[in-house]
Amino acid sequence: MQERVNKLRELFSGEGIDAFLVTSPENRFYLTGFTGSSGSVLITDREIFLITDFRYDEQAKKQCPHCTVVMAREGIPEALQELVQNINIRILGCEGEIITYQQYTSLEEKLAAQKIKPLYGFMDSLRAVKDHDEIECIARAVELTDRAFSHVLPFIRDGVTENSLALELEFFMRKNGAEGIAFPFIVASGQRSSLPHGTATEKIISGGDLVTLDFGASLAGYNSDMTRTVVVGKADDQQKKIYSIVLEAQLAGIRAVRPGVAASEVDRAARDVIAGHGYGECFGHSTGHGLGLKIHENPRLSVKDDTELKPGMVVTVEPGIYLPGWGGVRIEDSVLVESHGVRVLSTSEKDRLLVCGL
Ligand code: ZN
Ligand code: ZN
């Protein structure tokens, strides 16, 4: 954790700041290990202050021995005001995309002698490359997701609702160590499977339906994310054809993942396959995204993101084809960029369109 803070400090001079104020839960956890729901972190060139309130005082001291825990008796701006009297800070950076206007004006008022500088995505590049501990956590969350998929397969049949499958997945993951779900699960069946983000409903699944399940666990603060599309009862030729194109695109995307490659090139590799089969218009989202403390992180595997992939990045590869009125197919794995290539973390079967409910 100290190493993460040191790397962050190296970025200070480039932005012309003397200290950085962290208010987002993910960045707070990343730098301190503190799991409480309230608190701010002030990183100066020498110290790490974790400012929290009475409810978390004891917990913060236990979880964050490398931090100076400051108990805010009034509010965080007031505590900061007291703190900066003894520290030489001229320019204080803050998370521009997180801080509210109210918090910002309050800081400006209390820290009249300091300049408050909002920075955007300041920690994103740091967070994009995962360290060993983070990779372990994500791998554990991915493994649980694979197990949950095996568990839910026998439940997918004619007559069950999408919601019941979403709940079955959640129940299994919570019972097996997940602290929560990574996001509201997508269980989109039949014609609804053409909705890329069709969260589960009370719709009853029928024979012949494609069912797209997109789900993940939250474990030790980290998320997993996987999609599989299956069919109930029997697959028709069109379903098999669309599935094989999406699989071909997904495998091409995974093959393109290696250090030094631009994120946009992975997107192109997958997109070209789908376009080559004439379905370019039916794949309207990006090919993937970084994964970690948040479900969507940098880099984005999209046409617009030329970030160079580096060892330690964990990204998803998830192309899809969506045909309104018919349905859709998406296949998503979480993959790790390694020094010589790629390691696919998700292990759930995907080689063919699985038929369920027989
Ligand atoms: Zn997903
Ligand atoms: Zn995803």
Description:
With 358 residues, this protein is of the alpha+beta class. The chain has 2 domains: 2-128, Creatinase/prolidase N-terminal domain (Creatine Amidinohydrolase, Chain A, domain 1, 3-Layer(aba) Sandwich), CATH 3.40.350.10; 132-356, Creatinase/methionine aminopeptidase superfamily (Creatine Amidinohydrolase, Alpha-Beta Complex). It has helices at residues 2-10, 12-15, 25-32, 57-63, 76-84, 101-110, 124-128, 132-152, 162-175, 237-256, 263-276; strands spanning 19-22, 40-43, 48-52, 68-71, 91-95, 115-119, 180-181, 186-189, 210-215, 217-219, 222-223, 226-232, 288-290, 297-301, 314-317, 320-323, 327-330, 333-338, 341-344, 354-356. Strands 4-3-2-1-5-6 form a 6-stranded mixed β-sheet, sandwiched between helices. A hairpin with a 3-residue loop joins strand 16 (320-323) and strand 17 (327-330). Helix 5 runs parallel beside helix 6 and helix 8 (132-152) packs across helix 9. The protein starts with a helix and ends with a strand. The model has no long low-confidence stretch (mean pLDDT 96).
